[in-house]
Design a protein that fits this description.
Elements (H helix, E strand, L loop, with lengths): L2 E12 L6 E12 L3 E5 L6 H9 L6 E6 L2 E2 L5 H11 E4 L11 H11 L6 H10 L15 H13 L5 E5 L7 H16 L8 E4 L3 H4 L4 E6 L2 E7 L3 H10 L13
Parallel strand pairs: 3-8, 3-9, 6-7, 7-8
Antiparallel strand pairs: 1-2, 1-4, 4-5, 9-10
Keywords: ATP-binding, Nucleotide-binding, Transport
Organism: Streptomyces smyrnaeus
Protein name: ABC transporter ATP-binding protein
Length: 254
């Protein structure tokens, strides 16, 4: 199994000189194709920064992020944006749907932004993947929170990305609706017919992380170990250990 994403000595600093702040790194790790990885750590540990650099939403200060075989650090801003639109999907805690557009029109946006004329079949296919084929003409204010987040997932899937990135995707959802979304993400990885292939998700909730194959832990912007085949209990126990003094573990390459 090769890598969908590979990070090599990746760092992200903000500011310069004495006021510079290192938010991340150096971090070296990989996300294999066909895997579901959760990223966890205390507030300010660099979780979202790592996700944004890996997805090409933010440019690393040094090191490299290789996404679907392309080194993002070697691309210009314009080429990186174009590549990101085609190779990745991104789901945020806030649904970020345009209220004046229908579910179908919201899902079609990434295709329009990339200069393509959306085909009705491919947009409807993306909505069907998330169980909303019958709500194509509904606007966001006529959808529940869970349905809006499913539209956001469909919008991320419509370009058939190599990797789906999700930043606290269940944060605005109730327990039942959140579980339904997590089961959908799990199925997208497990099902070859529906699969996006690879999911990388930031969360603060051990119960949410337990849906993943692997949990990667960050603290103070660097790797602090990882956990395979996680359960909510084992993740919670590892999180509680992060505040205790001890050596930082480097996550091995998978």
């Amino acid at each position: 199994m090769d890598d969908a994403v590979r990070l090599e000595a990746l760092t992200r600093r903000y500011g310069s000189g004495k006021t510079a702040v290192t938010a991340l790194g150096p971090v070296s790790m990989s996300f294999p194709r066909g895997s579901f990885t959760a990223i966890m750590g205390p507030s300010g540990s660099g979780k979202s920064t790592l996700l944004q650099c890996a997805a090409g939403l933010d440019r690393a200060t040094s090191g490299s992020a290789v996404l679907d075989g392309t080194d993002l650090s070697a691309l210009s801003e314009t080429k990186r944006t174009t590549f990101r639109r085609e190779a990745t999907g991104f789901v945020f805690q806030a649904y970020n749907l345009l209220p004046s557009l229908t579910a179908e029109q919201n899902v079609a946006l990434p295709l329009r932004l990339s200069g393509r004329r959306p085909g009705r079949d491919e947009v409807r296919r993306a909505l069907a993947q998330v169980g909303l084929a019958d709500r194509a003409h509904s606007r966001p204010d006529h959808l529940s929170g869970g349905q809006q987040q499913r539209v956001a997932v469909a919008r991320a899937l419509v370009t058939r990305p190599a990797v789906l990135f999700a930043d606290e995707p269940t944060g605005a959802l109730d327990l039942t609706t959140g579980n339904e979304l997590l089961e959908l993400l799990r199925d997208l990885v497990d099902s070859r017919e529906r699969g996006v292939g690879t999911v990388v998700m930031v969360t603060h909730d051990p119960r949410v992380a337990a849906f993943a194959d692997r949990v990667v832990f960050l603290t103070d912007g660097v790797l602090a170990g990882e956990l395979h085949s996680p359960t909510a209990q084992t993740v919670a126990a590892r999180m509680s250990d992060l505040g205790r003094p001890g050596p930082v573990a480097t996550a091995p390459r998978c």
